[in-house]
Structures are given as C-alpha cells and as structure tokens.
Automatic annotation (TrEMBL):
GO MF terms held by the record: carbohydrate binding; isomerase activity
Protein name: Aldose 1-epimerase
GO BP annotation list: carbohydrate metabolic process
Superkingdom in the source lineage: Bacteria
Amino acid sequence: MIQLENTKYRVGISELGAEIQSIYSLEENFDYIWNDNGLGFWKRHAPILFPAIGRSYNNAYLLNNDIYEMPQHGFGRDQRFMVTNQSHKKVVFELENNEKTEELYPFDFKLIVAYELKAAVVRVTFTVLNLGDKPLPFALGAHPGFNVPFNNEGNYSDYRISFDPVQEKLKKFGIAPIPFRNGEVIPLNESQDNTIPLSHHLFDKGLIILANQGIKNVILSSSKTTHLIKITLRDFPYVALWSLEKEKAPFLCIEPFAGLPDIYGNEHDIFQKEGNTILGVNGEKTLSYQIALN
C-alpha cells in the first residue's frame, strides 16, 4: 500500500489496479472511501476503467472482424502497476501492455496514473501513450465509491447530488437491460432544481449516466453535516452515478467517464464505439479529475 499524507488527510493506494483504497480524515477519524468490511455489497473502492467502460455486449468487441473478449470495465483494474515516482505528496504508477493484456487488447500502450494530495484535494491524472505502429482506441474512466453517510452523520436519504454549472434540464442515457445503454437519451425525472435527492431506489433501474454536456463539478452533500465531496471533472465529458440496484448499500460512486457502455444488441467495432478516444501513432492523451474534501 502506497500512502500520501499531510496534516489533514491520508490517502492509501494499491499497486493492484493503481486503485485508491482510502481517503482518511486524520482530524475526525473517518474514511471517505467505501470499504465493504465484509458486508458483501461491493468489494472494490475506486477502480480505474481501461480500456473499456461498462460491459461490452457478449463481453466482447470486434477488431478487423475478429472477436476479442473484454471484461466489464476492461482489465486495468486487475493489473499490477509499477511505481515509478513516489513522495509523501505524490505517487506515479505505470502499466504497459504485456502477454495478458495483449490476449484481450492487441495494442502497445502505456497508462500512467498520478495521484497528488494537496491540502484537501486529491488530483488524479491519467496519461495514455500509443507505443505501437497503429492507432490506439480506448475508453477511460474512474469509479470512486464514497461512504454515505459521511462519518455516520445523517442517513443515506439525507444526502443530495448537485451540479455546477446549473443545468437547465438534466438528461440521462437510457439503460436497458442493465447495465447496457438502449440508445435513448431521456429526462432525468428524479432531479429537482439541478439536484438529485439520494435514495436507494434511485438506482433500481441501473446506473445513471448524465447526458448533459458542460457539467464541471458534481457535489455530494447533506444538511446533516458540514462535510462534502466535490468532484471536478476537468477533462472527462461524462459522469455516472451508481450504487447497487435494489439494495440498501451505504455508498455512492461518482464516476468520470471518457467513453460509454455498449448499446445492447450487437458487438461493436472498438474503433466505432461511441465515446472512445483514438490515439494516432506516437500519440499521447492526458485526462484528469480531482476530489475536493470538506
């Protein structure tokens, strides 16, 4: 476990998946990041989604008319990353293609993930490099899960999600069957005045992927506490919200997406997938987001 620390927060990150395991308040002794602790809801904490987001139809994709398997959310979250730079404020991880990744994804790449703790902000920066002699298609996302309520203050339904700048009408991608898209964009009827009241029933029909363009910040807060989380999307065009369907799991995932799950019904060519980035030979793409704490 790699740790970043200042006087207020300690961040724990695993080399497996370069995944945040903990963002701990040293002043008030509670963790913002979800840890299942044997409850059996969800064993992960904040996985990195690469080179796919969501579930591919038939767990596969097409490349030059050949079929390749692709696990849900890709393989990055289950690969061991190498630490290439480390201090008490910043750590850099790297993953390059290897025999296991090439079975699923026959491309030469490097994925660099940097975490930096500065005051009450955790900044996450991803850099994808194309090391091969052909274009590199990929999706990239983050999947941090947060304990709700914060520090046992209030109940799940006391919390709300709001957006900055204010969105006139919130829209979402239709999800059917779970977890696939159905190709529709529909009103987010659960929203009220740019705010979504949190409830366990909110996710009974699957994750919520906001279709609005221009959202910069997503804020999770409650009148029952002064604590809040603000996710600044920076370079990510989409954001998803998720908790377990038809369960009373005390967490919420706020997920910056650069890419989208498949539409149900057919396998997609990886170069034609909606939302994918295509990097040219020797190309490089950097995307970042940040988690601000209070």
